[in-house]
């Protein structure tokens, strides 16, 4: 678990204000201060962990329960029909704030939103890799 202070920790501590859209015992969701599009929301666990794999099962389940609910609200309010849910882990994966967080980023007809390029590779050694991951669970 992370003990380094982050901007999200400061928001949780009430030191920095935010535009809250949802809060419960385990999760806080608020508008991104630097949105990629109208309705861009950040969803964070109140448990302070830098990486997704560090979250407790309870914190992960709490996030999983509210992500669809918040996405439905963003779609309803913004009128978008498409959106991305983004979650990065580590600097090389473009994580800028080292507190687990999910972005819900509406994709609007004006082209605003997340732009990504997907360079698909070829699956090699799939059976062995799948077995190794399954055995690590």
Defining traits:
137 residues; alpha+beta; HIT family, subunit A; 28% helix
Describe this structure in words.
With 137 residues, this protein is of the alpha+beta class. It has a single domain (7-116), classed as HIT-like (HIT family, subunit A, 2-Layer Sandwich). It is 28% helix and 18% strand. The chain has helices spanning 7-12, 57-78, 126-136, and strands spanning 20-23, 27-31, 41-45, 82-86, 102-107. The two termini are 19 Å apart.
The main sheet comes to: 5 strands, antiparallel
Uncertain spans, ≥5 residues at pLDDT below 50? none
Determine the CATH topology: HIT family, subunit A
How many independent structural domains? 1
Structural category is alpha+beta
Widest sheet: strand order? 1-2-3-5-4
State the CATH architecture. 2-Layer Sandwich
Number of helices: 3
Write the layout of secondary structure elements.
Elements: H1 7-12, E1 20-23, E2 27-31, E3 41-45, H2 57-78, E4 82-86, E5 102-107, H3 126-136
Antiparallel strand pairs: 1-2, 2-3, 3-5, 4-5
Short overview:
With 137 residues, this protein is α+β, with helices and mostly antiparallel strands. It has three helices and five strands, in the order αβββαββα.
């Amino acid at each position: 678990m992370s003990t380094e202070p982050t901007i999200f920790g400061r928001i949780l501590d009430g030191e920095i204000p935010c535009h809250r859209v949802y809060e419960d015992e385990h999760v806080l969701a608020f508008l991104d201060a630097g949105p990629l599009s109208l309705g861009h929301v950040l969803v964070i666990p109140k448990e302070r962990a830098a990486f997704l794999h560090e979250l407790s099962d309870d914190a992960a389940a709490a996030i999983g329960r509210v992500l669809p609910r918040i996405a439905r609200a963003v779609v309803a309010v913004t009128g978008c029909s498409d959106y991305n849910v983004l979650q990065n882990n580590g600097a090389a994966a473009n994580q800028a704030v080292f507190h687990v967080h999910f972005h819900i980023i509406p994709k609007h007809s004006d082209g605003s939103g997340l732009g990504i390029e997907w360079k698909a590779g070829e699956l090699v050694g799939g059976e062995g890799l799948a077995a190794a991951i399954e055995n690590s669970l």
